[in-house]
Amino acid sequence: MWALRRSSRSRRGTLRGASLWSLLLIGALATAPARGQGDPAGELSLAGADERGVLEQLNTIDRELQEVRDRKRAIEDRLAEVQEQVRRHEDEVAVAEAQLAVLRPQVRARVRALYRLHRRGLARMVFGAEDPTDLRRRSVYLMAILQADLDRLRRFAETVASRARADAAIEEELASMKELRASLQLHEAELVERRAARLAMLGEIRARRAVALGALDGYRQVQRQLQRDLELASRAQANRINPADNFRDQYGRLPWPANGRLIRRFGPYTDPATGAEMDSLGIEIAAEFGTPFRAVFDGEVKLADFVPGYGQTVAIEHGPYTTIYSHANGLEVRRGDRVRAGDVLGMVGNSGLTDGRGYVLGFEIRYNGTPQDPLPWLAPR
Does 147 fall in a domain? Predict the structure, then answer.
């Protein structure tokens, strides 16, 4: 049974039964939320689940965002290294250009010399020696000149090719790094946008949660007022009941109000929807939808209507005692009816504030408005 710890009971005098129940019903309906028979505990639970889901999504986005930013930093570091390579390469290119500046005139001079030598004829130059010693010397010098020229030409070609390869490699890596950085920046912007959307959603969910908490607070006020009014009404009727029908004599012998399974006992418990410490002011019996529930004793129906938190509710007075049947789906009695023990009062449902996991009948016994543990009153089964 949905309930909170009972506040101190106010004593504002005794009201007449009929007018009191009218005021109770009007007050209860006036404090009902705009959603009518909405379930703020269910909304609170749903908002909590939604909040956890969005927070998990935010955690995932934050982790992905951190990974993207780490990769961006790695790219920036690599770009800095490549830029440093570019600077070093530019220095190397400058050295190579200087070498080429020296080699070019040398190569041109050697090419011209070789051309003239070719015109004059290699055989003429070699075999123009005066003796064999001079022939060997001229041959050695000529081969040395030719080898040196070949070496210069090879170095020239290697320098040019090396510079071209280095230029191409650096340009390719720079282009690749910049493309990857642009891709990561786009991904980062998308993640930031998704994160902002989830934060906005989280704000809406927390606003829903605040509304649901406010509705629950309103329900608590209704229940406290119901408890005070039941106390006053029961006291007003205490002396109008036939002693032969004394409710107290039925202690331990009252029939169960419905066939079903006991799922909540009287006393403190932790609300699964809010985590708040609560007091159950009665018991809850799980039953099939539409199972009839019955009066446990003769009395007069003082309430047969929707009450916030309780849903469709029947309250029957038995002198200073009152039995309350809540969370119904369809009522068979009206206020002012006289009922006998065993009369059908309505059908089991899940109206009002329940955990939404099935169909239940809430059952309470009050003595001058003070909640009593119903189990000792009921016959063993």
Answer: yes
Q: How many CB atoms are located within 10 Å of the residue 13 CB?
A: 7
Q: How far is CA 92 from CA 85, 96, 151, 166, 295, in A?
A: 10, 6, 20, 10, 102
Amino acid at 356: G
321 domain residue, yes or no = yes
Under the banding of pLDDT at 50, 70 and 90, the label for residue 84 is confident
The pLDDT mean for the chain works out to: 74
Work out the average pLDDT over 262-279: 81
The answer to whether residues 167 and 250 belong to one domain is no
Answer yes or no: is 232 within a domain.
no
Residue 309 parent element (H or E):
none
**pTM score > 0.70 for this model?**
no
Provide the residue range defining the domain that includes 127. Answer: 59-200
Whether residue 54 is predicted with pLDDT greater than 60 in this model: the reply is yes
Q: Where are the beta strands (DSSP E) in the chain?
A: 261-264, 267-270, 277-280, 283-286, 292-294, 299-307, 311-318, 321-331, 338-339, 344-348, 360-367, 370-372
Mark 93-126 as b/e (b = at least 16 C-beta within 10 Å): beebeeebeebeeebeebeeeeeebeeeeeeeee
> Residue 102 above 70 pLDDT?
yes
User: Which amino acid, one-letter code, is at 182?
Assistant: A
Minimal CA–CA distance to 49: which of 351, 356, 362? 356
- Contact present, 27 and 225 (Cβ < 8 Å): yes
- One-letter amino acid at 200 equals A
Last residue of a domain, one of 149, 167, 200: 200
Task: Say if 97 falls within a structural domain.
Answer: yes
The total of structural domains in the chain comes to: 2
Residue-wise pLDDT tens digits, 105-131: 776 676 676 666 555 555 555 555 566
* Residues 136, 261 within the same domain: no
Q: How far apart are the C-alpha atoms of 360 and 285, rounded to whole Å?
A: 5
Q: What is the CATH number of the domain that holds 117?
A: 1.10.287
